[in-house]
Amino acid sequence: MHHLHAHLVFVTKYRREVFNDDMLTRCEEIMRDVCQSFEAELREFNGEGDHVHLLVHYPPKIALSKLVNSLKGVSSRYLRAEYTGRINRISTGSVFWSPSYFAGSCGGAPLSIVKDYIESQQRPA
Description:
Number of helices: 4
Strand content: 25-35%
Radius of gyration: 14 Å
Strand order of the largest sheet: 2-3-1-4
CATH topology: Alpha-Beta Plaits
């Protein structure tokens, strides 16, 4: 049994307001599939126009940086292919995500607090 949780935040390139509700829903589906392929679980997901928040439960055999690279890479490929018109209008160039990301360990905080915070992040109207 393991209890490794990370709060991840990914920001779009140049903080462009790319996401609408439909794209956020699709992004969540993609990221949930990526997590499953790593034997991890996406416990919570939310976002706004220019960033997403994830709460991920992952096994100790997984390097968090490899999971993050896969989450960002796979989601970028799928979202760019499926929402080409919208992304081209907003013009993020050839890169979807900013190269940096936030990863915070959630070992000390009660998960309910982290989940409440992620749920409180607004989705665009």
